[in-house]
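Dear colleague,

As promised, here are the two records you asked about, laid out in our usual form so they can be pasted straight into your sheet.

NAME FIELD: protein one
SEQUENCE, THEN STRUCTURE:
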Amino acid sequence: MDEKIIETVEKYKGRIITVKEYRVVLINGKEAKREVVHHPGAVAILPVLEDGSVFFVKQYRLPAQKVLLEIPAGKLDYGEKPEECAYRELEEEIGYVPGKLKLVHTFYPSPGISDEVLYLFEASDLKRTKENPDEDEFLELVILSKDEVKRYLFENKFEDSKTLIGVYYYLYSRRS
């Protein structure tokens, strides 16, 4: 049930992504074109404090054209291990490093258009350091209790897939 690639054309190469167009043969023998965004992958981290509350960040997202409330996240540098990226991103975005880091889930956030893989971690036993956001990153930290997270979920205040998956894990799968 796969597609055979018969031609590949690079359409765009940027700082983070590459876009390629593939000509493929479908399982019924017909040809089609597929556009794919190649991405190095990313991590998302659910930082849980001792009292069970969770750190979130508010930041403006140009593609959505609004401020979103998200769990901390960031892209993998080429050759970087997901765990290393999770430590780095957590310290950059919220000024904490985890004493414990647990891989919760690995998923494709948008498999119809991109090969990006996202690694979702739970971070606990958090130790304060100092935020050091990227110079083009402007974040507001938000800490929510478990009850507030549940209320925000049902009020549709979480609008991106990584945060929704992290929140559902936190509320319904996590061992407290």
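NAME FIELD: protein two
SEQUENCE, THEN STRUCTURE:
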Amino acid sequence: MQNFAILTAAAGVSDAQVSQVLSELVQPGDPVRLAASAVEIACASLGSAVAPQGCDLNLVPAQGRRKKMLIADMDSTMIPVECIDELADFAGVKDRVADITERAMRGELDFEAALRERVGLVAGLPRSALDECYTQRISLNPGARTLVRTMAHLGAQTALVSGGFTYFTARVAQAAGFAVNRANTLLFDEDRLTGKVSDPILGRQAKLDSLCELAQAGGFDAGDVIAVGDGANDLAMVEAAGLGVAYKAKQALRIGADAVLDHSDLTALLALQGIPQEEWVQD
């Protein structure tokens, strides 16, 4: 079966880097430049090829490359931060909360228990602190808006599914262009956080369930989905997708992903599907 080697880099892929990879591929075809940041080469396998410094190199099957749905994690994937960590800064407990977050994302802690503990530590914060947190700390990662808007323009479903909080996913989804967003709901009492979230907790299983449910509703299966995340909590979702992508991810997720991105922005997910820059929807 024919495959494609996809070479990507946020800083751009040079002709010299393409030549370096080309010489090591098994039965390579001619390189095709999808964008300044992405080149694809038809081949049988990667052979002994490795990614040049500052680049990502992934192998994807030629068949069924363009997906019908994008499902994405939010924290440290669509945005560069963990919202709960930034919110904790407003409560003066960022270091403590960030340590729990890091361990949970590595898969060392039970996600549900870790979430409840972290939310408990920000009890009493006013709603205005969430507003300030979003305004001052939250932005989209490079390529996020182009990825989501392009997928939607090409007819794909788009869903943001997070173990974080609906307060933030609703705003990030609107900024990026996601049609659907799902997350946990923070509880308030007279405009102050109670330190609790509503049940049930949206975690690893709920992300997988969302993928399956949304795909079924769209009339296709998990093989037609591209999923992207960064932590252990995304593993089931990424493994189930037809193309599962680990984006600047923890080791617990990298081992289960079809593609790993360390040096590329999120438009690399378009390149993995063979979508050239001429088809990208850019601001």
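A couple of things worth noting about protein two: The chain has two domains: 1-63, 66-283. DSSP finds eleven helices and twelve strands in the chain.

Best,
R.
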